[in-house]
Amino acid sequence: MSVEQAPVQRADFDQVMVPNYSPAAFIPVRGEGSRVWDQSGRELIDFAGGIAVNALGHCHPALVKALTDQANTLWHVSNVFTNEPALRLAHKLVDATFADRAFFCNSGAEANEAAFKLARRVAHDRFGADKHEIIATVNSFHGRTLFTVSVGGQPKYSDGFGPKITGISHVPYNDLEALKAQISDKTCAVVIEPIQGESGVVPADLAYLQGARKLCDEHNALLIFDEVQTGVGRTGSLFAYQHYGVTPDILSSAKSLGGGFPIAAMLTTNALASHLAVGTHGTTYGGNPLGCAVAAAVLDVVNTPETLAGIKAKHTRFKSRLEKIGQETGLFSQVRGVGLLIGCVLSDAWKGKAKDVLNAAEKENVMVLQAGPDVVRFAPSLVIEDADIDEGLDRFERAVKQLAQA
Questions:
Q1: Looking at the record's lineage, which domain of life comes first (predicted)?
Q2: Which is catalytic among the residues 92, 131, 255, 353?
């Protein structure tokens, strides 16, 4: 017997939700593959991917099966006990990466929180309390907890919440000389996004990551890669560190890891993991059977030569078409990114108008993102069909041309 649901609409958001978001005027109610339908039955093509989360699109059969099977078996036991899906997922991640150990939690912020706490604990245990400083980059984004938002290099997100966590400094991204000038024997960690996501889809230079690795080694500091947005196939490699061939000491993963189910992981080595002894860190929901079962299914689909090669091919399909649209309309000065994390940099005449592009696209029934006010971001399903790419870009082109004429 189904219970009749009370009708809701977008106006309800403004009455009952905390106003820290400003969601679109429509409400998506159903998704399949790379298509979404709203309350009125309108169909949209999804190039936003839940902000690089829906790695396999909407309602992928393998994920629906994994979740349903697990939902009928075991939901939650806490970390007083371990569970089979968590152990299976940890084996998959360890087998596929540099890491020996996994810590599971629920979000990218929590994975980064664990990474930063681990880095400080390792330095504390090995070198004493003085070695606690963390170097991050300007315009970086690492989450919204007080620690992670303090490490993030965007004061607009961290101002106004009382005293910030100290011992954190920020240097320009992709600037090895600035990092060299800042790092010292007090540095416990350097944290870098291999591709800066929220601040405009800016890929790191290979020499920069190689140089950061060398500096960390020279100063007994740990190199942390925040792969919340770049991990789990987004770049066409399972993780971006593999794309670059530079190995971190600690890696954070979330977003695509659960394909839409909240789960995150911090990955590290045996030697470092030993510093988080029993009782030093924890989480109630982390590593729950539902999330781990889904994430294991995501990895089974994504971590294959066929899927990873397909992501690289789809990148080329997107990029060539977007560059053509940019040339014809004068809207973009550059299309950058790796794999299916792509940023279109708005030309000088369109600076600051990414939201306008996003709104125009929605009117043409295609969902895109922005990454700051000057970049339109695409983070679609990693298995999006070519027909959906072409149709979505047709719609996007119509939107952009109408905007340019207006």
A1: Bacteria
A2: 255
The answer to whether 70 is annotated as binding is: no
The beta strand positions in 96-212, using DSSP E, are 101-105, 133-137, 168-171, 187-192, 195-196, 202-203
Q: Are residues 156 and 286 in the same domain?
A: yes
Active site residue 141: yes
Q: Which of 141, 147, 261, 396 is catalytic?
A: 141
Domain-located, residue 189: yes
Number of H helices, E strands in the chain: 15, 17
Same structural domain, 49 and 159: no
Taking only the tens place, the pLDDT of each residue in 150-205 is: 999 999 999 999 999 999 999 999 999 999 999 999 999 999 999 999 989 999 99
User: Does the annotation place 227 within a ligand binding site?
Assistant: yes
Whether residue 251 is found in the same domain as residue 192: yes
In terms of domains, do 291 and 338 share one? no
Dump pLDDT digits (tens) for 41-91.
999 999 999 999 999 999 999 999 999 999 999 999 999 999 999 999 999
Amino acid 146 reads: L
Query: Does 141 carry a binding-site annotation?
Result: yes
Which helix (H) or strand (E) element contains residue 378?
A: strand 375-378
Residue 311 lies in a domain: yes
Specify the number of domains making up the chain. Answer: 2
Task: Assess if residue 371 is contained within a domain.
Answer: yes
pTM of the entire predicted model: 0.96
Domain final residue pick, 282, 302, 322: 302
401 is catalytic: no
- Residue 128, φ and ψ in degrees, nearest 5: 105, 170
Q: 226 among the known binding-site residues?
A: yes
229 annotated ligand-binding residue: yes
Helical H segments across 60-142, by residue range: 61-71, 84-96, 108-127
Does one domain contain both 116 and 97?
Answer: yes
Q: List the catalytic residue out of 226, 249, 374, 388.
A: 226
Is 160 annotated among the ligand-binding residues? no
Domain encompassing residue 52: 10-60+305-405
Domain-located, residue 65: no
